[in-house]
Amino acid sequence: MNLEKFQQYCLSLPGTSEGLPFGENTLVFYVMGKMFALTDIEEFESANLKCDPDQAIELRERYEGVLPGYHMNKKHWNTVLFDGSIPDKLLLQWTKDSYDLVVAKLPKKVREELTGRS
């Protein structure tokens, strides 16, 4: 995985944007203003992704490259290492899962705006 591919994927999801709220090195991806992924753009060694609490524990037990979320609520966030132990396809799926978790918590009106339905 490289930064450009990760960034392009995140920004391809509906309603997403990016920003640097924690300094010039931490790139954060948002859906409708709510964070769903973040990574260090200078060292690009990992990404923090939101995760269902039960699944977060399961992934940490199953994959060496999945750790409790660094500087995040460890119940709801995982840090996924880009050390080659996690296939890109799986990393992108977990990124989409993170996005979907955030979307599911958005107010109904905002979700409808995001999907174009009323």
From TrEMBL:
Pfam families per record: YjbR
Key words of the record: DNA-binding
Family annotation (SUPFAM superfamilies): YjbR-like
Source organism superkingdom: Bacteria
Keyword check for Repeat: no
InterPro entries linked: YjbR (IPR007351), YjbR-like_sf (IPR038056), YjbR/MT2646/Rv2570-like (IPR058532)
GO molecular function, one term: DNA binding
UniProt keyword DNA-binding present: yes
PANTHER family: CYTOPLASMIC PROTEIN (PTHR35145:SF1), CYTOPLASMIC PROTEIN-RELATED (PTHR35145)
Protein name: Predicted DNA-binding protein, MmcQ/YjbR family
